[in-house]
Structures are given as structure tokens and as C-alpha cells.
Amino acid sequence: MTADQPAPAQPVNPVAGAFDGVDPEPGVPKPDPILVVDDITKHFGGLRAVDVHHLEIQRGAITALIGPNGAGKTTFFNLLTGFDRPDSGSVYLNGESITRVAPHRLASRGMVRTFQLTKALTRMPVIDNMKLGATGQIGEHFWQALLPVWRRQEAEIEAQADALLERFNLTHMRDEYAGTLSGGQRKLVEMARALMTDPTIVMLDEPMAGVNPALTQSLLGHVKSLRADGRTVIFVEHDMDVVQDISDWVVVMAEGAIIAEGRPDDISADERVIDAYLGSHHDSDLFEEFENEQANEQDNEPGSPDEHA
Ligand SMILES: Nc1ncnc2c1ncn2[C@@H]1O[C@H](COP(=O)(O)OP(=O)(O)O)[C@@H](O)[C@H]1O
Ligand SMILES: [Mg+2]
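Above are the sequence and the adenosine-5'-diphosphate SMILES. Below is the predicted complex in C-alpha cell form.
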């Protein structure tokens, strides 16, 4: 946040200081890990998409997962959330293995991920999208999952959905088709819907993608409010300004592995991270600052080699 912007009221950070004394090294133990990953691998044919030796996610913190295109972030995210199965290795939630647990069962154990509004969901009113979140499962078979839930506890679920719409300033869109929402409003619905199961871990897949800059601060405030609630947040994000703003800790992937971990400031100064981004094709303004820094360094040291390029 720069000095010329008005400072919005910030939700408190209950884990401020939680990473004091934690070394910015891949695989470093955390004081109170909620999620632990051991020796996870996933191959697609001959391609090793994910190969993570050890990762601990601190309870109650906002952890960002970053890395160049093709680094394995989405695949790793899918392995963590039960949407894909690893070839080997384990994932533990609160010390219990969740390695091959299906997504809707993970939801009942406290872990949910956001889903982008698919075509089918855009043809439903916002309130019905919210009710779907109560199943913790929004896949192809969501109707089968949904019907018993609706029959059982419709009034309760609707009241909860309305309360969340209120919290996310979406009450006026309640009965509109989700397809009429702006990009930012869609992201808010995705986040609000994920809270229908009152999760302890919320996994956000590119929460800021396609969001109008005017809504960015509001969305970031909502992510911070999840942490203020005491929830753990893990998110994949391309925008380094967003990562710097809201993350307590950053995990960097490249070629399937974790190449760096640390506080946002550690990461933006890390040579391995800069090399990983510059050594790969990317199509956005991702790490623009790093590129500029690198360009300046190259101006200063004309012969400096880049062994990862
Ligand atoms: N279903 C799949 N089949 C084959 N290759 C895949 C599949 N999903 C991902 N990959 C490959 O695995 C690597 C990691 O992809 P991904 O996890 O999507 O990376 P990221 O999200 O970091 O951009 C890429 O080389 C990608 O092409
Ligand atoms: Mg991806």
C-alpha cells in the first residue's frame, strides 16, 4: 500500500509474527502446520508435473503458491484438494492422511476450494449457486449431491447463503443469474460459496484473475477477512502485487518442485525465483519488476551469465 492511497480498514492478522524465526528455505518446518505434504509426485506420461519433497502450511496464515506457467501449481493444487491423485506420496490434514480422500469428503473435514463459475452455473441465480456450496462438491454430478441436501435443510442453507451474500455485499444480486455478474462479483460469489461449509482451509484458485482493478482492494480485503476469521488460506496467483499485499508466506514452484519459500520480501529478493521466472516463457506482466531489476543488473554487469535461461 503506497502512502497516496487512502488506507481501508484492514482486518486484523491473527498470525502476525507466526513466521518469526522460520528460515526461508524449501521444506522448512512451520510452528503449527495444518497441512503437511511428503514426497508427492505426479507424472503425465513422461512429464514430471509435480515432485514436492516436503511442504508445511502454517495454520491460520495466508500462503501464496506462485511460479511460472507450467510450473505445476494447478496440478499440485489438484493433488492437495483431492481432485487428482498423486503417483506417490502423502498429504496430511491435522496429522491425518487425506491423500486419496474425495473432494466432498475433504469439505466435511474442513478443506474447500473455490470453483470458477462454469457455463451451467451462470444459468442459475446467485442464491442457487450459493446453495450448491453447501454440498462442498460442485462437479458434473452436483445435482445428485444437491437434491438430498435441499430436501433436508433448505431453510437453514438459504439463511446461511443470505448471510454470506450480505457479508460479500452481494445481496442485491441474489436473484440475478450468475452469468450477469461482473468478473469481480463472480470471484466474490466463488469465495462466498466456498464458505458455505464453514471451512478451516480455503483454497483459492487465482482469486484475482479477470478482476477489474476497482474491485481488487475489496477482494483482497475479503481474503484477509478469511484469515481474520481464523481460517487458513492457500491461493495460486500470478499478480506479484497481490502476493506482496496479502501473503504471510510465499511458496515458489518451478518444474514441479518447490524452489523457494519465504516471506514476500524474502521471495522478491531471491535469485532462484528471479531465474525461474526469467528462464521460462510467460505471457503476462508477471514479475515485471523482476524483469526490470534484471535488466538494470545486466546494464550494470554486461557479461553476467544466466545459467537457468
Ligand atoms: N492433464 C494433463 N495431461 C498432460 N499434461 C498435463 C496435464 N495437466 C498439466 N499438464 C502438464 O503438467 C505441467 C504442469 O502444469 P500445471 O500444473 O497446469 O502448471 P501451472 O498451473 O503452474 O501453469 C505442464 O507441463 C502441463 O502441460
Ligand atoms: Mg495453472
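Residues 73-74 surround magnesium ion (ligand 2) (CB under 6 Å).
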